[in-house]
Design a protein that fits this description.
By secondary structure, this protein is mainly α. The chain folds into two domains: about 10-80, Arc Repressor Mutant, subunit A (Orthogonal Bundle), CATH 1.10.10.60; about 100-230, Tetracycline Repressor, domain 2 (Orthogonal Bundle). It is built from eleven helices and no strands. Helix 6 runs parallel beside helix 9 (about 175-195) and helix 8 (about 140-165) packs across helix 9. The longest helix has 26 residues, at about 140-165.
């Protein structure tokens, strides 16, 4: 499995595939600016509400100008989703990958993930929390993309937990799949609580929950607690 499941998701419509081969450097820069605006809009209003016409109005561009970059609503939605994946990779996954393999990397991923949520990287709240809620009751290609990405994310967290077992920091009988599920549920629950109530203690409560869970399956809880303290 790729170590960067979100960033490695490059799903394109047929129109996007042919257009991408013809882009100039200036055109690519313009496309990136458009996509950043599209991500902000989608995080607030939803991917389904994202249209070329609406985005053109927001950016004060012509529809024909946007059609030069995105040939259909599906193309725009997929490209926007992939851009959000790239942002998440830059903000969360890359910082974690720079740390030592094992619990240090897992803990860094969790804390950076929380900090990225607190910093409101996306204008309308945590993009993937919002999109998951938007598509959980829908059918269609976009829902399949979202669902696969969330499955990949769970598998990535599970992989980091298994690596922590391999480094001898977590017990051999640790249920990596279960812990990954619990962490994911905690994080998305915390994200919703923060967005709805703006409760400033949400991050600290979430870190405590993650720390307590890891300490409960640690081979050496004292050493692991020292790692948590030194990582502050």
């Amino acid at each position: 499995m790729s170590p960067q499941p979100l960033a490695s998701l490059h799903l394109q419509s047929k129109e996007a595939g042919s257009a991408s081969r013809k882009r100039t450097k200036q055109g690519e820069q313009t496309r990136q600016l458009i996509l950043r605006a599209a991500v902000s809009m989608a995080s607030s209003e939803g991917l389904e509400s994202l249209t070329i016409g609406k985005l053109a109005t927001e950016l004060k561009m012509s529809k024909s100008g946007l059609f030069a970059h995105f040939k259909s609503k599906e193309d725009l939605q997929l490209s926007t989703f992939n851009e959000a994946c790239t942002i998440f990779n830059e903000e969360v996954m890359q910082p974690a990958l720079k740390t030592r393999k094992g619990v240090e990397r897992l803990w860094t991923l969790c804390t950076v993930w929380l900090e990225y949520g607190d910093r409101a990287v996306f204008f309308g709240g945590e993009f993937f929390t919002n999109v998951a809620a938007e598509y959980d009751g829908r059918q269609g290609p976009m829902r399949d993309v979202v669902a696969k990405t969330m499955r990949d994310w769970l598998k990535y967290m599970e992989r980091l937990i298994r690596e922590s077992i391999e480094t001898g920091e977590l017990k051999l009988d640790t249920d990596a799949e279960q812990i990954a599920f619990e962490f994911n549920a905690l994080f998305y629950g915390a994200s919703l609580a923060f967005q709805l109530n703006m409760e400033q203690t949400t991050g600290d409560r979430m870190k405590r929950a993650v720390k307590d869970k890891l300490l409960s399956v640690a081979v050496d809880p004292v050493a692991l607690n020292e790692l948590f303290c030194s990582a502050k």
